[in-house]
């Protein structure tokens, strides 16, 4: 985790903002400045001055509307630079990884699931799904299962990006997994770092995805069997 910025460092960020957008701070009082420093320091608690300064510079370089940034906009630019490679990958690239895992999941689904990036794991749900899907007809997997996975990837990507913006202190209260501490660790070691509530939340999220995928698969099978009976 990055060293938290001091009040002096946050002040330097804000003085830059005030210098670039002076018209928005003409009636700013000393008390207003103190409150702004406290608010920005709290929201940016997970980022160093170097990171926050880089995020602010990126915002200023891209701003064409002339309005000063709020902390979340600066965090957006920081997160873009810090985002794991897997989360930057396109859906076809991620689905290719899942397709590769399916090829060896008849007896090694747990191992293949563990090799997938977190975004793929969340979209797939559980190792059991990999085992089930690899036994289905290839056409069914390509036309039905992977289309559902693609939609799950879109939703998961948005959720992960939003979760990553939440300050660590808030995530501790809410029981959300601490990505900054777990992202670089091997899969087996993550369980030792995540708090109990975080593990449960992560498990429940995967179970919900798995249940939804299972329901859709069963619905598809039922329709397929009924169609076969009528044809017969």
In short:
It contains 14 helices and no strands. The chain is mainly α. The longest helix has 36 residues, at 196-231.
Describe this structure in words.
The chain has 2 domains: 7-82; 85-231, no CATH class. Helix content is 75%, strand content 0%. The chain has 14 helices and no strands. The protein has helices spanning 7-20, 30-43, 49-62, 71-82, 85-88, 91-102, 105-115, 118-124, 127-134, 138-165, 168-174, 179-182, 190-193, 196-231. Helix 1 packs across helix 2 (30-43), helix 1 runs parallel beside helix 3 and helix 6 (91-102) packs across helix 10. The longest helix is centred in the C-terminal third of the chain and has 36 residues, at 196-231. Mean pLDDT is 81; it is low at 178-195.
Average per-residue pLDDT, rounded, comes to 81
- Whole-number count of domains: 2
Helix content: over 70%
Question: How large is the radius of gyration?
Answer: 23 Å
**Which parts are unreliable, with pLDDT below 50 for 5 consecutive residues or more?**
178-195
The profile of the biggest β sheet is:
none
As a percent range, the share of strand residues is under 5%
Following the backbone from N to C, one meets helices and strands in this order, namely HHHHHHHHHHHHHH
What is this structure's SSE topology?
Layout: H1 7-20, H2 30-43, H3 49-62, H4 71-82, H5 85-88, H6 91-102, H7 105-115, H8 118-124, H9 127-134, H10 138-165, H11 168-174, H12 179-182, H13 190-193, H14 196-231
Helix pairs in contact: 1-2, 1-3, 3-4, 6-10, 7-9, 8-10, 8-14, 10-14
């Amino acid at each position: 985790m990055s060293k938290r910025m001091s009040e002096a460092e946050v002040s330097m960020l804000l003085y830059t903002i005030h210098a670039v957008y002076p018209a928005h701070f003409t009636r700013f009082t000393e008390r207003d400045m103190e409150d702004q420093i406290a608010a920005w320091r709290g929201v940016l608690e997970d980022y160093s001055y170097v990171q926050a300064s880089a995020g602010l510079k990126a915002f200023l370089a891209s701003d064409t509307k002339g309005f000063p940034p709020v902390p979340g906009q600066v965090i957006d630019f920081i997160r873009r630079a810090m985002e794991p490679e897997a989360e930057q990958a396109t859906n076809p690239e991620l689905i290719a990884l899942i397709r590769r895992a399916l090829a060896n999941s008849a007896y090694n689904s747990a191992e293949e699931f563990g090799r997938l990036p977190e975004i793929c794991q969340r979209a797939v749900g559980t190792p059991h799904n990999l085992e089930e899907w690899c036994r289905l007809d290839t056409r069914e997997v390509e036309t039905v299962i992977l289309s559902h996975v693609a939609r799950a990837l879109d939703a998961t990507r948005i959720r992960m990006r939003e979760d990553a913006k939440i300050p660590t202190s808030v995530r501790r209260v809410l029981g959300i997994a601490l990505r900054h501490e777990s992202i670089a660790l091997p899969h087996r070691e993550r369980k030792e770092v995540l708090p109990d509530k975080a593990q449960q939340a992560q498990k429940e999220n995967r179970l919900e995805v798995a249940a939804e995928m299972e329901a859709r698969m069963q619905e598809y099978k039922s329709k397929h069997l009924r169609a076969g009976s009528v044809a017969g």
